[in-house]
Each structure stands twice: as C-alpha cells, then as structure tokens.
From TrEMBL:
Organism superkingdom: Bacteria
Keywords: DNA-binding, Transcription, Transcription regulation
Protein name in the entry: LuxR C-terminal-related transcriptional regulator
Organism, as annotated: Streptomyces longisporus
UniProt xrefs under SUPFAM superfamilies: C-terminal effector domain of the bipartite response regulators, CheY-like
CDD domains listed in its UniProt record: LuxR_C_like
Amino acid sequence: MVVDDHRLLAEALASALKLRGHRVLAAAAPAAGAAELVITRAPEVCLLGTATPAEPGIFDPVVKIKRERPQVAVLVLGPVPSPRGIAAAFAAGASGYVRHDERIEGVERAIMKARAGEAAVAPQLLQGAFSELLNPAAQPDDEGQRLLQMLTPREVEVLVRVADGEDTRLIAAGMGIAPSTARTHVQRVLMKLGVGSRLEAAALAARTGLLDRAGPVNSGPE
C-alpha cells in the first residue's frame, strides 16, 4: 500500500511498483488517514510518504499501525537530510527510511528487506544523518524556501495544483485562465525548478517541503 499527502506521488509510485510485478492494494492520500486504511487492508508493506518527518506527531500513524497490525512493515519515504526524522521514524516502529528521490530499484530493495524483517535504510543515509547530528550547521540551507522565492505567487499555485494531480485543463479552470496560459505557467515552473517533468517537479516540491510552505491555492481570473 502506498500513502502520501500528495496523491500524484502516491499513484505514480503505485503504478511503477505494479509494472515491476508488485500487488498494490491501494494508493491513497492524505497520509493522515493511513493508519485506519492499513489496519483495514493489512498489506505486507506500507510505503508512507511525508515531507515533514521532523514534525512532532507526524509518525503517530506508524505507532497505531504497529500496535494494531504488528506484522505490517512500514517504510517511510521522506526528505534528506533529516536526522531527527529518521530517528523518529524508527522510534515509532518503522522498518525503514527511503529518500523521496530514490530510484524505483532502491525503493524495491527496501521493500524486500522490510518484508524479510530487516532494517531498510541505506548506509550512506545513516552516515549523513549521524554526521549532521554530530556537526549541525549553524544556519542550514533551506532549499524549500530558496525554491519558493524563485517562483511568483501564480507559479506557486500552479505547482501546488500539479502536485495535486491536476492536468492543464483543470489548472486552467481552477485559476480562471486559458489552457495555453496554464501550459505556459507549468513550463516556467519546470524551467525554474530545473526539472523535466511534472512528476519531478511534484517530487522536488514535496521533498523540500515547498508545498507545505505554499499554503492553500487561490482561484480566480488572471
């Protein structure tokens, strides 16, 4: 089962896993409702995506899942670096932590390890986390804030809608603009973020926490 606050990411990962022969019971959003869904469906592995792993209480669903369905292995997909998030995930009972931008092969390896009862976390990920904990930066670089400052308010709204899975037609309707204008906005967003597709833009925004900073989208004419 794949659960993420951003439906586009959940469905894309679910599709990729299905193509590689895995049976996916559900791809759902938001992650806040993951516990009840997992407890009901009882998958072997739950992939739980989060953009804010260091936020207090973010892994409460993992605690509930492990209490009700201890046989379910929970793999957290989150941003890096986030040493507190990694520690909190394992403390809650997660079987592993995988980078949001990991290749599908890496996600698949983590799934196999989790199913076998092993801790699924890349050695370099732990090394990076420990390094940051031992040598914290005085003023850590906030990539999400930096990216947010590169976009206009209208482009931020477009990015949020892209991450929610809206196509050009829906973006145009929701913002009260022409489809050609919506398409132009999307291309500008991709160019500014330095990515080649909408899926990559959504993944980057989720990994850096940009979407959480953006706030709710507005609607209305140009």
